[in-house]
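ARCHIVE CARD
Drawer: 12
Card no.: 0347
Subject: one protein chain, sequence and derived structure
Cross-reference: see card 0346
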Amino acid sequence: MNALTISLLYSPGPRQVRQWDINLPVGSTVAQAIAASGLLLEFPELADSRLSVGIWGRKTSLRQVLKHQDRLEIYRALRVDPKIARRERFSKQGVKKSGLFSKKRAGAKAGY
């Protein structure tokens, strides 16, 4: 086999997914796949930032050599810290409406 077929995916926003199917020579790296896809031409804001990439959901580096039918994913930066978002959701819901104590049987002990 002289060529690899790679799927490159990027989500520019919520519920938007772009996919490119790329044919590359054997031994190509993640950086070469990104350059061949034209992703940086379509989304120039990615060229300025340090890309966070993964293969099949596992983070990897730009120097990683690709295999046939790999799924290369470009990750967006988080806009809100997950801990802060969870804390805000919890404060809006209230203590008695979330977590372990949200569903209580009539006559049951607290927490059961």
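Annotation on reverse: The helical segments are 30-37, 39-42, 45-48, 82-93. The CA atoms of residues 74 and 100 lie 36 Å apart.
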